[in-house]
Amino acid sequence: MIALSDLMTVAVMLTPVFVDIAGVVGGWVGLAEFSPQQAASVNPFWSDLVRVVTMRDYNTRVVIFGVATLGGAAGLVGSFTLLRKRALMGDALAHASTPGIALAFMIATVMGGDGKSIPVLLAGATVTGLVGVAGILLIRNQTRLKEDAALGIVLSVFFGLGMALFGVIQQMQTGHAAGLEGFIFGMTASMQAADARLIAIVSVVVISGCLLLFKELQLLCFDEGFAGAQGYPVVFLDILLMAMIVLVTIVGLQAVGLILIIALLVIPAAAARFWTEAMSRMMICSAVLGVTGSVIGGLASAVFPGLPSGAMIVLVCSAFFFVSMMLGTRRGVLIRLLRRQQLNRRIDRQHLLRAMFEQIEQGQPKAPAGQTPPQAIAHRKITVSVAKLMSMRSWSLRRLERAIDRAVDDDLIRRSNGSCKLTGAGLTEAARLTRQHRLWEMYLITFAEVATANVDRDADAIEHVLAPEVIDQLEDLLDDQGTTISVPVSPHELEQRSTAETPADEHTAEERSVNVSGDRGAESPTREQS
Predict the structure, then answer these.
(1) Which of 125, 165, 244, 359 has its CA 20 to 30 A from that of 450?
(2) Which residues contact 74 (CB under 8 A, 6 or more apart)?
(3) 3-class DSSP state of 447
(4) How far apart are CA 432 and CA 379, in angstroms?
(5) Residue range 479-506: mean pLDDT, rounded
(6) Given this model, what pLDDT does residue 27 score?
(7) In degrees, to the nearest 5, what angle opens at C-alpha 308 toward C-alphas 306 and 314?
(8) DSSP string for 332-380
(9) What is the pLDDT of residue 400?
(10) Residue 90 has pLDDT above 70, yes or no
(11) pLDDT tens, 148-194?
(12) Between vectors from CA 84 to CA 268 and to CA 312, what angle results, nearest 5°?
């Protein structure tokens, strides 16, 4: 029990929060009744918010324009890098650019130039970034190390070299490293019109390249071997993709910094993956998420000056990713749970109907070889007790009761006095499901050489994903049976399953069925064709 004193303590602690909320709401209501000058005297926060959202300040327009174009370009090229399984390539490039920034500053300062010129620093970052890419490819192709190991080696070595060079700069008499650390964490607020123009130009180049080479890059991401067999220049396309990654990474250093640039390349594309399976729609969604996250993050940083822009952009994109991960219509967590639940219920209903049909079969006299007695189908008044159904499978009573209730709601079963009987629709469905199960058994026995004693359980694990074209092929195996109904004879002796079977075994088989057919994504056509 919660003591009254505890409730009073919580109420006292929450009182300032409610007061602040009331003040914000009151300020919002009152703001509509005053001019901007009057609103500033009533509630300065809302005045600043309106000024930022409407982009009255020149610097705000410059920053938002720069980060928006960068977010769109990063979202597009990030879609290809994600599918190419090179999501961390941008992170390695960003860290590899650190020594380039330091060397460019040192060379420009020694030569009497402006060591902190943005074009000079970005040029040095580009050079060492390309050297880092070459190092990754060299390690991957000339050694037995995997690409992830090459990324880790290049990332750590180049970043360590950059930090060492920053220490050397601090000891120079002609210059100091003050301001260069902004490339590590980002310095969006200091972005000028020339910087935003450079970001826009690079973004337009990258977006144009992605759109013009969409077909080729898509083929490269999904099947590199097939692209090479079709005569596409795989190496050249790979170099172009890497070049676009380098461009986005280098110009994004000033906006979000070398540590957080990877977020703009990965998070929007990963979030878009939860909503669609089509590459074109994924690119559009990724670009929209990148632009929206960059704009909202930049505006939030302008409203709250103490918050860094790069971190706010990443946090907003991360919020989009979390929402997409939970609510995505194709790969979201909730939709996958819903599909899994629907599949489990469908499997339970199929097992229930087939169990009842087999009980009806066992209660009928033996038919001639290759035939099933027609009265097994015609006679629908035969009842099956719940106890009999419990003995046939290792499900719990609660699970069986739920499956029966759902079948009753679907008008497939009638229930009375602890027994069940099939309706006309239920008998037809039960016959179809039994036929499908036995087709799988015949297939496994004929082609997979599965032992007759084990085929029932193996067929149970995969029968729920039987494709229509596979059924058509298996029907040819029934020509020599001459059945009067559409249900073949069971290829094995029908036996009741022992109640000693643990529910875990049944759950394992069910999970295998879910894993096979639970996610009808991009791989579904391949499974059906196979």
Answers:
(1) 359
(2) 248, 252, 261, 264, 265, 268, 290
(3) coil
(4) 16
(5) 50
(6) 46
(7) 140
(8) -HHHHHHHHHHHHHHHHHHHHHHHHHHHHHHTSPPPSTT---THHHH--
(9) 87
(10) yes
(11) 888 888 888 998 998 888 888 887 776 665 566 667 767 776 777 88
(12) 20
